[in-house]
């Protein structure tokens, strides 16, 4: 049991630490990051219940609906809801890169609990595969969602566009990920290039968010009134 718990938790904590430590300026309070992580973790059970109801009521009758509605839209919407309605207005969300930290936190909270449940059901031998695919993909969905949420908060224009993209892009990517798994017999041939693209896109958003954060801090320093001598 301890081995499964360790294998289930370790990938999420490693990825969260990686993106957290990329915050060059004021790091987010650990307590706030932990609360966001736990909020994502608590989403697993209500989402599983809704998905079970949808299956029981035969609302899912195709791989497309399962991938894009039951998984992609449902999971990303609830993560987006927590990020936008609980973290967005918080005083600690004061830099563009912070959106990525909190987006990754809520996504990895969800992914970690989901990972533990799957490992208990399937066995610890699946730990490496799940770390490389579901856990890392959730982290990257969170990166992209958080990047656009940061754009919503710190952009002077096009905020409605960034808000739509903050939900639509992770939903589209998540749905595509699940559709590949559900549809293609030889899914690794499609999944490998998709994951390479997802990592490329996620790290591109990380780089852009860091540039925006650097500029914001430089501008704040530039206009800071001089100390009286």
Automatic annotation (TrEMBL):
<feature type="transmembrane region" description="Helical">
    <location>
        <begin position="127"/>
        <end position="150"/>
    </location>
</feature>
<keyword id="KW-1003">Cell membrane</keyword>
<dbReference type="GO" id="GO:0005886">
    <property type="term" value="C:plasma membrane"/>
</dbReference>
<protein>
    <recommendedName>
        <fullName>Protease PrsW</fullName>
        <ecNumber>3.4.-.-</ecNumber>
    </recommendedName>
</protein>
<dbReference type="InterPro" id="IPR026898">
    <property type="entry name" value="PrsW"/>
</dbReference>
<dbReference type="GO" id="GO:0008237">
    <property type="term" value="F:metallopeptidase activity"/>
</dbReference>
<keyword id="KW-0482">Metalloprotease</keyword>
<feature type="transmembrane region" description="Helical">
    <location>
        <begin position="64"/>
        <end position="88"/>
    </location>
</feature>
<keyword id="KW-0472">Membrane</keyword>
<keyword id="KW-0812">Transmembrane</keyword>
<keyword id="KW-0645">Protease</keyword>
<feature type="transmembrane region" description="Helical">
    <location>
        <begin position="162"/>
        <end position="180"/>
    </location>
</feature>
<feature type="transmembrane region" description="Helical">
    <location>
        <begin position="100"/>
        <end position="121"/>
    </location>
</feature>
<dbReference type="Pfam" id="PF13367">
    <property type="entry name" value="PrsW-protease"/>
</dbReference>
<dbReference type="InterPro" id="IPR023596">
    <property type="entry name" value="Peptidase_PrsW_arch/bac"/>
</dbReference>
<feature type="transmembrane region" description="Helical">
    <location>
        <begin position="6"/>
        <end position="21"/>
    </location>
</feature>
<feature type="transmembrane region" description="Helical">
    <location>
        <begin position="186"/>
        <end position="202"/>
    </location>
</feature>
<keyword id="KW-0378">Hydrolase</keyword>
<keyword id="KW-1133">Transmembrane helix</keyword>
<comment type="similarity">
    <text>Belongs to the protease PrsW family.</text>
</comment>
<feature type="transmembrane region" description="Helical">
    <location>
        <begin position="33"/>
        <end position="52"/>
    </location>
</feature>
<comment type="function">
    <text>Involved in the degradation of specific anti-sigma factors.</text>
</comment>
<dbReference type="GO" id="GO:0006508">
    <property type="term" value="P:proteolysis"/>
</dbReference>
């Amino acid at each position: 049991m301890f081995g499964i718990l360790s294998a289930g938790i370790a990938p999420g904590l490693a990825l969260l630490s990686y993106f957290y430590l990329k915050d060059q300026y004021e790091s987010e309070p650990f307590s706030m990051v932990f609360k966001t992580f736990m909020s994502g973790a608590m989403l697993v059970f209500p989402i599983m219940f809704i998905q079970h109801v949808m299956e029981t009521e035969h609302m899912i009758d195709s791989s497309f609906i399962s991938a894009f509605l039951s998984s992609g839209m449902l999971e990303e919407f609830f993560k987006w809801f927590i990020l936008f309605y609980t973290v967005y207005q918080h005083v600690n969300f004061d830099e563009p890169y912070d959106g990525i930290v909190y987006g990754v936190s809520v996504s990895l909270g969800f992914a970690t609990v989901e990972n533990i449940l799957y490992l208990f059901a399937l066995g610890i031998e699946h730990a490496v595969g799940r770390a490389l695919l579901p856990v890392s993909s959730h982290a990257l969905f969170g990166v992209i969602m958080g990047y656009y949420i940061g754009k919503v908060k710190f952009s002077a224009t096009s905020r409605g566009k960034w808000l739509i993209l903050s939900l639509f892009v992770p939903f589209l990517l998540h749905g595509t990920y699940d559709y590949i798994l559900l549809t293609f017999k030889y899914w690794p041939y499609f999944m490998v290039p998709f994951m390479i693209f997802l990592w490329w896109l996620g790290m591109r958003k990380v780089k852009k968010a860091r540039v925006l954060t650097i500029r914001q801090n430089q501008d704040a320093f530039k206009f800071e009134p001089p100390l009286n001598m």
